Amino acid sequence: MTDIEDISAEKNWLNEERARTTVKNLLRRNIGAQYCVNRQEALNAILEMIPQGATVARGDSITVDQIGVIPELIKRQQNAVIDPFRWDADGYYLDTAEDRHQMHREAFLTDVFLSGTNAVTMDGKLVNIDGLGNRVSAIIFGPEKVIIAVGVNKIVRDVNEAMERIHQVAAPINARRHYLKHHYDKMGDLPCVRTGRCADCTHDWKICHYTVIIDGVSITEKGRINVVLVGEELGI
Asked: Could you say which of 17, 137, 222, 232 has the lowest number of CB atoms within 10 Å?
């Protein structure tokens, strides 16, 4: 019997079609890309791209956490891991601000950098806005290889839609996450944290300082950036 109220198959079909178009256009721009049906498949693909003995650093990424990459790297004991985003059970940093800053700097000399992205366009562009700039700068230059994990919910039509998504969805949720879960009390006064809407503010604790659009990779560094598109809703 057909369950006419269950449209999960139709949604999965549409997500995969959008993802495969995006993968094709990322490859056209010299960005490595592949589609994985779920987070387990994505985890396997990411681990396969990280050679034994490689030093791995990470940016702040809920998607990377949801896939479980860092715990698996630690478990397999083949790679040194630089992780400035270690929290205790209450959401407080395990490392001092000075130590975390040093880890951000060390990330530029690592073999592999793991990150998410705020949006990926169907014509193959990566769009991000950073508060500190450590994530976007390491994606652009430094680490030998960059692996970007992204859920299908972050696929957008073009850069304009990407910017709208970041300002009106990703940034407010991310800022509120830091305020509520990681005790950044000063962020509680951010307009987006209070109202859920971007006000293009100049608040000292805003998380939108550096806007980067990657619309391709030089032929000399073809495949340095590798996108793993996952057929699930992941991240912010």
From this structure: 17
CATH of the domain at 205: 3.40.50.10420
CA distance 162 to 128: 9
How far apart CA 148 and CA 63 sit, in angstroms, is 9
Smallest Cα–Cα separation from 46: which of 68, 28, 31?
A: 68
Give me the domain span that covers residue 107. 8-230
DSSP code for 190? -
> Number of helices and strands (H, E) in the chain?
9, 10
pLDDT at 6: 86
In a domain, 1, yes or no: no
d(CA 117, CA 130): 10
Segments in the chain below pLDDT 70: 1
Q: How many residues does the chain have?
A: 236
Residue 3 in any domain: the answer is: no
Q: What's the structural domain count of the chain? A: 1
Instruction: Name 81's bridge partners.
Output: 56
Q: Is the pTM of this model over 0.90?
A: yes
Q: Evaluate whether residue 236 is within a structural domain.
A: no
- b or e along 94-122 (b: 16 or more beta carbons within 10 Å of the residue's beta carbon)? eeeeeebeebbeebeebbbbbbbbbbbbb
Give the whole-angstrom CA distance, residue 223 versus residue 217.
8
What is the reported pLDDT for 230?
Answer: 98
- Measured CA to CA, the distance from residue 48 to residue 76 in angstroms comes to 12
